[in-house]
Amino acid sequence: MEEYRTHFVWITILLLIQSFASCTNIIEGPQNVTVLTGSNASFQCTVASGWTIITWYLQDVLIVGITPSDTTTTKDHTIIVQNSTNSINGAFTSEITIINVNKSNSGVVRCSSLSSSFKDGYLSVQVSGSLRITTGGVTVTPNSTVSMICEAAQWYPAPSITWQMNNTAADTLYYSTTYSTDANNYVTALSTFTITPQFDVSLTCLASLQTLTQPQSVTVNITVQEHIPGSSSSLSQTDIILIAVFASLGGLLLLIAIIILILYCCKKRKKKKAESGYRSDAWKAPDMKDNNNLSTVNKTSLGEKNYAYTPEPVSLQQSYGSYSGSNSVNYDDLSTSTNFSIKSRCLPRVRWEEYIR
Questions:
Q1: Of 102, 112, 246, 304, which sits 20 to 30 A from 132 (CA to CA)?
Q2: What is the spatial distance between Cα 247 and Cα 242, in angstroms, rounded to a whole number?
Q3: Cis preceding-peptide flag for 157 (omega within 30 of 0)
Q4: Which pLDDT belongs to residue 264?
Q5: By C-alpha distance, which of 65, 155, 160, 58 is closest to 106?
Q6: Is residue 184 one of the residues assigned to a domain?
Q7: Left if phi > 0, otherwise alpha if psi is -120 to 50, otherwise beta: which for 58?
Q8: Within 13 Å and on the Cβ side, how many CA atoms surround 65?
Q9: How open is the CA angle 190-131-107, to the nearest 5 degrees?
Q10: Positions in the chain whose pLDDT score sits under 70
Q11: Which of 102, 126, 150 finishes a domain?
Q12: How far, in Å, CA of 276 to CA of 265, rounded?
C-alpha cells in the first residue's frame, strides 16, 4: 500500500513541474512499430537541451517518468529504459523497450516533454496462429476432382494465404479464401484449393504476416492411383471401359458362333433328309414292265427280280435239257448229263435262268 502511495505522490510532483515549466521542443518523437506477439518493442524520443522532464505513455497510461536525476517505471509492464545525451548539441534521447508484448499492448505510445508538447507513435502487435490442412493427404483415382481446405485459426490481423503445387506458386484460379473474426478480433481464414490431378501432386498452404520472416506453411500429398484399396468400387474407370469393350466383343463372337452352329445344323439336317429320301425311293421302286421281269419260258413268268436281295455266290454245274413238247423244261441230272455241261461257276441263284435262255 505504501508503494502505491509513493508512486502517486511522484506522479503528482511531475505534473506540477510540467505545469510551471517552460515548453521544451521535441526534436524527434517515437515511430510506429509492428512486432510479433512475444517479441520486444522499442521506441525513442529526442528532446533539445534544457529539458526538465520526459514522460512516456502507453494507451494513455503513464509507464515511464524521466528527470535529469532519476528514472521511474510502472510495475504493470517489464520495461527497459536507456538514456543518452549528445555531446555536441546537448540533445537528450530516451529509449524504452517493452518486453514480451502481446496483442493487448497494441495502441498509441506517446512521448511528452511538457503537458503541451508531445509526439505519438503506434505499437502494432501481430499474432501468428495455427495452420493446418483439414483434409490431410489423400489418394484419388485419375480424373477425380478433390478439394483441399487450409485453415489458419486465431491470427491477427488476417493472414495472406497462398498455395504452391510441387514447390511452384499456384494460380489463384485454383483457390479461394474466406475470413471470419471473433469477439476478440482474432481472424480465422479458410482457403479451399480445388484440383483434378492426373499425377501425384505436393500441395503447400502458406500463411504470412508482415512480422513473419518466413511464411508459416503446411504440406500434404495427393496420390493418384488406378485402384484405391478399400474403396467402394474396386474397378477404375479404365478397367470398367476395358471390361465393357471385351464384353461387347465377347457377345459379338458368341452371336457369330450361334449363327454358324445354326447354319451347320440346317445343312446337316438337309443332307440327312436327302439321304433318307434316296433310300425310301430305293425301297419303293416303281412296277417293272414284263421285259424287266425275270426270263419267261413259254410265256410263263418265273417271277420278278428282288432288287433288295444280295445273292451269295455258289458253285453250280448244269446242262441244258431238251424240250419235250410240253411247257416244262427237262433238266438232266447234273452228275450224269452228257449233252451239255458247264464247269463249276459262281453264279447268282436268281439269274441262272438267263443262261437257260
A1: 102
A2: 8
A3: yes
A4: 84
A5: 58
A6: yes
A7: beta
A8: 19
A9: 85
A10: 1-24, 115-116, 227-239, 275, 277-357
A11: 126
A12: 16
Q: Residue 21: what pLDDT?
A: 45
Burial class (CB in 10 A: 0-12, 13-18, 19+), 215: middle
CA-wise closest residue to 54 among 89, 81, 75:
81
Same domain, 14 and 80: yes
Determine, yes or no, domain membership for 273: no
Cross-sheet strand order for the sheet of 41-47 = 26-28, 41-47, 92-98, 79-85
pLDDT cut 70: percent of the chain above it: 66
The residues near 198 (Cβ < 8 Å, ≥ 6 apart) are 142, 143, 224
Grid cell listed for 157: 490481423
Specify if 29 maps to a domain.
yes
What pLDDT is attached to residue 25?
82
Q: What is the pLDDT of residue 231?
A: 53
Compute the distance between CA of residue 194 and CA of residue 22 in angstroms, rounded to an integer.
67
Concatenated DSSP letters for 84-138? Answer: EE-TTT--EEEEEEE-S--GGG-EEEEEEEETTEEEEEEEEEEB--EEEETT-SE
DSSP 275-327: HHHHHHHHHTPPPPPGGGS--EETTEE-----TT--PPPEEE------B-SSS
Q: What is the pLDDT of residue 281?
A: 56
Range of the domain at 261: 235-268
Residue 303 in contact with residue 349, Cβ under 8 Å? no
Cα(181)–Cα(160) distance, rounded to whole angstroms?
A: 15
End residue of a domain, out of 224, 247, 277: 224
CB 30 within 8 A of CB 121: yes
Query: Which of 173, 172, 180, 175 has the alpha carbon at shortest distance from 152?
Result: 180
Q: What is the DSSP letter of 156?
A: B
* Total of domains in the chain: 4
